[in-house]
Design goal:
- It is a single chain.
- The strands form three sheets. The chain has a seven-stranded mixed beta sheet with strand order 2-8-7-6-5-3-4, with helices on both faces. It has a three-stranded antiparallel beta sheet with strand order 9-10-12. The protein has a two-stranded parallel sheet with strand order 1-11.
- 43% of the residues lie in helices and 14% in strands.
- The chain contains 14 helices and twelve strands.
- It folds into two domains: 8-17 and 259-385, Alpha-Beta Complex (Aspartate Aminotransferase, domain 1); 20-257, Type I PLP-dependent aspartate aminotransferase-like (Major domain) (Aspartate Aminotransferase, domain 2), CATH 3.40.640.10.
- The radius of gyration is 21 Å and the shape is globular.
């Protein structure tokens, strides 16, 4: 692996480097704002004020009525699923076949507890199939999860069509949106979308790890999973991570205040990268919908192995992935490739040859130039060896 100063980081859908401005802001708060926000002395009051300001800012950014801070996106998703469904034994739960493992594994765990967990399919681009979803909906459905922007291929769910359909066919259902990848990169508004809850995570937008949030609308409040001192409106006990939460709000503000410009720049970089790679390697194909998150590019070279491509790029200081970090762990446990790509109905050669390149606000032209030069050369070497 190359020296840290020579790394070209193109795996921002897995996690992002903390923005230097956010890091400085966070560091200052760690030193200066160390009071417990539940304490009544001046340091506690200062911490409570900072916490309230960060909450108000983030709620405004995503159109929420309430917000519960958690230790990450996975915890927030668990709070939504498990918290809403407590005391509803036998309730039906629907999630997409290409949803994040935090939804799918939690749904499977709830199934073992007597709930009925089912998945709705996606098309060849990873977009939920509305007609199939409609067939699954009825008045017994109490929870529907939707992945706003897919973490592997970037495809966007047609929320404007899905939400009214669910409200009509399953009027008692809590509609949850996993917006971890979408938040800040594209406009995301819980109130305008008409959904009940939304998962967010700081580390996907150049904020610190270990900070997430469950944004809530006015209905269907969950019950607490972690009890104790009653923090976060009684929904998530434990002393709040005030510096981390404030850094989350800062990271969101830096992106959303210039969302059109920042995301437009990233989209242009992504599109240029796609065009140049496909021109240099005509056998490669792009996976996913044209209507997708601005920062994700999923490509496949059928006949090659994405893992081999990834490791060759790694030797040149270029960091990408073969899918989501969670999916890569699943492969090591004996699963056959990305569950997202399998759900899309792709053949095994295409699945095995897939790589994901994902950009962030800190991505540079040099990062793009590095992979544009390296990838065709690496593929040429692999072809000569009969490995592609």
């Amino acid at each position: 692996m190359a020296e840290a100063s020579k790394i070209h980081y193109l795996d921002n859908a897995a996690t992002t480097p903390v923005d230097p401005e956010v890091a400085r802001f966070h560091g200052a708060l760690l030193e200066e704002c160390y009071g417990n926000p539940s304490s009544l002395h001046p340091l506690g009051i200062q911490a409570k004020k900072k916490l309230d300001e960060a909450r108000d800012l983030l709620m405004g950014f995503c159109g929420a009525s309430r917000m519960v801070f958690t230790g990450g996106g996975t915890e927030a998703t668990n709070l939504a699923l498990r918290g809403v469904l407590q005391n509803k034994p036998g309730a039906r739960i629907l999630a997409g076949e290409a949803d994040h493992p935090s939804v799918l594994r939690t749904g499977e765990a709830l199934e073992q507890q007597g709930y009925r967990f089912e998945t709705y399919p996606v098309d060849q681009n990873g977009v939920p199939r509305l007609e199939a979803l409609e067939r699954l909906l009825d008045k017994e459905v109490r929870f529907v999860s939707i992945l706003h922007g897919n973490n592997e291929v970037g495809s966007l769910a047609p929320l404007g069509k899905m939400v009214p359909l669910i409200r009509d066919k399953a009027p008692r259902a809590h509609i949850h949106v996993d917006a971890v990848q979408a938040f800040a990169k594209i406009p995301v508004d819980l109130d305008r979308l008409g959904v009940d809850s939304m998962t967010l995570a700081a580390h996907k937008i150049h904020g610190p790890k270990g900070v997430g949030a469950l944004a809530l609308g006015p209905k269907f409040p969950p019950q607490a999973l972690i009890t104790g001192g009653g923090q976060e409106g009684g929904l998530r006990s434990g002393t709040e991570n005030v510096p981390g939460i404030c850094a989350f709000a800062k990271a969101a503000e830096l992106w959303i205040s210039r969302q059109s410009e920042e995301s437009g720049r990233i989209r242009a970089m992504r599109d240029r990268l796609e065009a140049n790679i496909l021109e240099g390697i005509p056998e490669m194909r792009r996976l996913g919908s044209q209507d997708r998150l601005p920062n994700i590019l999923c490509l496949s070279l059928p006949g090659a192995r994405g893992e081999v491509l990834m490791h060759h790029l790694e030797e040149e200081g270029i960091c990408i992935s073969t899918g989501s970090a969670c999916s890569q762990r699943a492969e090591k446990r004996g699963k056959t490739g990305s569950h997202v790509l399998r759900a899309m109905g792709l053949d095994q050669r295409t699945i095995q040859g897939a790589i994901r390149i994902s950009l962030g606000r800190l991505s540079t032209e040099k990062d793009l130039e590095a992979i544009e030069e390296s990838l065709p050369r690496i593929v040429g070497k692999l072809k000569a060896l009969g490995m592609a």
